Amino acid sequence: MKNVLIAASVLMFSFSAYAAQDPEAVFARACGICHNGQLPTAPKRGDKAAWEPRLAKGTDALVQSVTNGLNAMPPRGLCMDCTAEDYQGVIKLMTE
User: Fold this and answer.
1) Are 46 and 35 in contact (CB under 8 A)?
2) Alpha carbons 38 and 32: distance in angstroms, whole number
3) CA distance 33 to 27
4) Residue ranges per domain, the chain?
5) Which of the two ends of the chain, N or C, has the fewest CB atoms closer than 10 A to its terminal CB?
6) Residues of 20-51 as b/e, b for ≥16 C-beta within 10 angstroms?
7) Using an 8 Å Cβ cutoff, are 86 and 62 in contact?
8) Rounded Cα distance, 22 and 77, in Å
9) How confident is the model at residue 4 (pLDDT cuts 50, 70, 90)?
10) Which residues in 64-90 are b (16+ Cβ under 10 Å) and which e?
């Protein structure tokens, strides 16, 4: 019985660790602080011209920039519980 509980706990943790968060919610709590125009160097959500050169680098490079931090953006972009999948979702949201 103990092994079943341990296996179930590990399985539940692994599913929750990879579950994507709602991009709109992540943006509202973490990304919008800078990407709504408060920080002039952060490209605004929906500003296709500002995002174009960044998108040219590819999504993987953008996820790396968020994860490691870039210029004024701190590592993990103020979303300490985000996964790479979460960052991809928010990047897609901001660049549309």
Assistant:
1) no
2) 9
3) 8
4) 21-95
5) N
6) ebebeebbeebbbebbeeeeeebbbbeeeebb
7) no
8) 16
9) very low
10) ebbeeeeeebeeebbbeebbeebbbbb
Secondary structure (H, E, C), 12-58: HHHHHHHCCCCHHHHHHHHHHHHHCCCCCCCCCCCCHHHHHHHHCCC
Q: CA 87 to CA 71: how far, in whole Å? A: 17
User: Could you read off the pLDDT of 5-55 as tens digits, one per residue?
Assistant: 454 444 444 444 555 899 999 999 999 999 999 899 999 999 999 999 999
The CATH code that applies to domain 21-95 is: 1.10.760.10
Q: Would the pLDDT of 62 be above 90? A: yes
C-alpha separations of 60 from 6, 55, 67, 74 in Å: 34, 10, 10, 17
Residue matched to tokens 């549309």: 96
Structure-derived torsion over alpha carbons of residues 78, 59, 68, 20, reported in degrees to the nearest 10: 50
